[in-house]
Every structure is written in structure tokens, then in C-alpha cells.
Predict the structure.
Amino acid sequence: MLSRKLFAKLEARHNFSKVFGRNWSCGAVLLNFGQWGISFDRSVKKMSPYSASRYANLVAATLAPLVAYRKAHGVPVAWVSMNPSPLAIAASRRQGTYAKTLMQHRMIECPPREWRMPHVTHAFNEAARDEVARAGVDYLDLEPIALDLLDLSFDSIHYQDPVGTALARAVLGWHESVIGKV
């Protein structure tokens, strides 16, 4: 997976060819940046959420240099789907977080100021899947793993057992399946 620092640079610049031009010693590149475009952070900044078509355009713009990187360096590349976010506040192993409180509160307002609802993340995943297929890059679909257990998130965004373990196994399974096949 890309480091948080590199991820921030990629998202901010959208100039991936300069970043991926480096000779890394990584085994694979997995990428997704979907939830920021539909998070409450956009409403705080008085911005509208991304539409699925805008997201698809960003995915397409991201994939071109990733495909070039894959061809140049022989490194497997995959787009990772977004996980759904919980709809309810539940008891948590982690003490109530600022994000957790705001997320559910803003999701049920009218109009909502938080758009990470399952039907929205699913539409974004489908838009990404179409662009990934056009680019010939692998699509790692993790959405079904978390969907049925989405309220098990410890902070309304991230998952631990049993979902986290299943997500990790899916990523490792993909990685093992592509090593040496590029």
C-alpha cells in the first residue's frame, strides 16, 4: 500500500507520473482515494460532494500513469473499492471519536452534510470499476466483505476483526495471485 505521505502528495497534485517515475522496490501498488470526495469535510469547506461521474474522471486520470508505471516497472497495480461506512453509532472499543459523532449526525440531517452512505459508496465503486476495466487494471472489490457487517467499525471508518482480518486476507490473496505475473 502507498504510504500516507505519498498518498497525500498524489491526491493533492494529480501529477502521478513524477511520483511514480521513481524506481521503487515495492511488490505492488494498491490505490483508492474515494471517501474524501463524499465526506463531511466537503460541507465544512462549503463544497459540494463529488458526483459519481467526477469520481470516475479522477479515477481515469489516476489510472493512466499507474498503467504506465506497471508497464515500465513490472509492478502489479490494482484499484481498491471503498468500504461502506456505518449508519449508526454503536458501542465502541475506542472511546467516542469526533469523526464518529459528526458523521452520523451529518448523515441524517436534511439535506445531509455527510454522504458516505452505502448506496453512494456503491455508486462510486461501480463508476471506478468501469474505469478500471477500461484501463485493464485489477479491481480489488472489498465492498461486499464489509457491507453485511458495516456497523462493526470501531470508529465509523475503519475495521478490525472480523472485517479487518477478511479485508487483509483479500488484499494478501490478490497480492499472492499477481506476484510474477506482470
